[in-house]
Structures are given as C-alpha cells and as structure tokens.
Design goal:
6 strands, 161 residues, 4 helices, two-stranded antiparallel sheet, alpha+beta
Length: 161
C-alpha cells in the first residue's frame, strides 16, 4: 500500500485524496495552534510559497494528542491558520498520530527512521515527513525548523524535473 492510498478528509469536511499529491514532493506535518512550535506555520507557508509552483506542497494534519494543544474545531483551526499565518497549503481533518486511534497514514509514516536511526511514535507537534515522488520518506523531528538546510536541500533534491 502506498501512502497515497490512505483515506483522508479535508479540513472543511470535504472529500480529499492523497493521490492528488502523487508525483510531488510533500511535507506531511502534524500541526497545532497552541504550541510553542506553532510559529513553524510561518516557515511551512514560506516553503509552500517558494516551492509550491515547482511540484511541492505542505500537507497539514492537526492533532490534539500533545497536551491538548489543538483543541479547536476544524472551522476554528482553519480560521486560525488563515488569519494568523496566511496558510495556503492543504489542511486535513484532525487526526491521532500515535496510539490506538492512530491514523493509518501515520501508522505507515512512523515506521520511517529519523536521522539518528529512530523510528516509532511522533514525538511532538510539527514532526515532518518529506515524501518524495515515488514514495521515499525522510523524517525530521519537531525541533527541525521548516527552513532548516536539511529540509530545504531534501525538497530541492526531490523536486520533479
């Protein structure tokens, strides 16, 4: 099964299909609006603006599993992201990224090892998974900022020609 085969729902409750992003570079991120790392939305949006027309997209998945830092409804999340950070990248329904109700997408993504060789549960909000065209995944832990050279170079190296 490809990561694109997992069912998802758009933040507005509408239909969404990860196959729409197949062939692109996608940065899958579990996001939260009341976290110390929330300002990373700014860097994520900058990546979207810089590379969005070159075959790249950020895919945001709100998650309330880390100290309740994403308590809002989907509508509240959408309003926050739009008015506070001008988010234009696709956002999806709030999900669990760990535990018994872990979304199948994250069940697959969390099998990927980070730079230190550690796989397993998402550690915190804003953990990032860079999915290259063809499905290869690179994992970046929450403390790695969106503008970090490791993320930028991975995006640039995998952009479709």
């Amino acid at each position: 099964m490809s990561i694109y085969d997992h069912p998802v729902t758009a933040l507005d409750g509408g239909a969404a299909d990860l196959h729409d992003y197949e062939g692109k570079v996608a940065l899958v991120v579990n996001v939260a609006s009341k976290c110390g790392l929330t300002p990373q939305y700014e860097g994520l949006e900058q990546l979207q603006k810089t590379y969005g027309d070159q075959g790249f997209t950020v895919l945001g998945f709100p998650c309330n599993q880390f100290l309740g830092q994403e308590p809002g409804s989907n509508e509240e999340i959408a309003t926050f992201c739009s008015t506070t950070y001008g988010v234009t990248f696709p956002m999806f329904d709030k999900i669990d990224v760990n535990g018994d109700d872990q979304h199948p997408l994250y069940a697959e993504l969390t099998q990927v090892e980070d730079a230190d060789g550690a796989a397993g549960d998402v550690q915190w909000n804003f953990e990032k998974f860079l999915v290259a065209p063809g499905g290869a995944v690179t994992r970046f832990r929450p403390g790695v900022e969106p503008q970090d050279p490791a993320i930028v170079s991975a995006i640039e190296a995998n952009l479709p020609s």
